[in-house]
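Hi there,

I know you've been waiting on this one. I reran it after we fixed the sequence typo, so this is the corrected version. Both the input and the resulting structure follow.
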Amino acid sequence: MQFNKKSPGSTNENNMKNSIHVNLKTKLIVLFFAHMQVIAAQEWLPVGTTWQYLNTVWGKPVGINTYMITGDTTILGKACKVMSKAELACDLRPIAEYLYEENDSLFYYESTINDFRLLYDFSAGPQDVVKIPLWEGISIYDTLHIRIDSIASILYDTVSLTKHYVSYGFNVGDSINYSGILVHRAEIIPHIGNLCNFFYLTESGFCDEIHTCPLLCFLKPGLGELKISANFNCDGTTQLDEAFLSKRIRIYPNPANNSLTIRSDLDNEVNWSIHDGSGNVALKSFVPLKSHADIRIDLTRLKPSFYIIVFIDNYGQVVQIEKLVKID
């Protein structure tokens, strides 16, 4: 019987190749996990982080509201991020917020109590209930109960993200009621936030009508921009009525004292109505605003406050909505 002999160096050569292969594989694994750790360790709210929400009033898109991390500061010994908003929203929160993160949770500074309160707890799991203290003026209740109903992985622009499907609830007697309020279902993406109103929207009368919803896009320096909404582009143009973007009705001055001028560049007549913070009509037109004309409105009957002006065409369609501030 004849056997084939191996060359003397063949075993060592194979061992060397295997060793190189193992070492290369080990290095790749180390590099992979190092990369994952870098992503995991990335600061959640670096300066430049941006949320783009669609502003809607009575279900009609009226533009884009941008929230952005614009700086750093220290409050009560906490290293905070400054969140600046392009304009006020119906959550009755200030134009600037101060946030800090700790242990997978996000806290906001509440000036009325000179302390921080919990806003998000991203470590919560299915059937957990997170209790969020509500701020002054937003609700007749003092605590919002957020129940995590389920968790799923969702693909956004080829990036897989975890989404929490949640229900809102309030104390009713000895139990928590998760129905019977305007917004009782929501979706939250950890380290991005609520997909409809970054600060929670509850049953406050004024907020029943005005939303920063949905979240269109989220941008984080170093990771790029994620398109969140399936129905809108990041600039809000897709399915967004151009009449709302063109601002063909203008009001001035704003803030206004005793009178307000409305100028229309529309081709058709429109009627207008001014609504207070509860949605009630404070003033309305008796004669339509003519095409390519202007009118002057007496505001002396209005108390200093924040108002909404709604413009409706002869077919009953809302063509534009403007915010008005009445001052002394």
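Quick highlight: The chain has two domains: 50-227, 247-326.

Best,
R. S.
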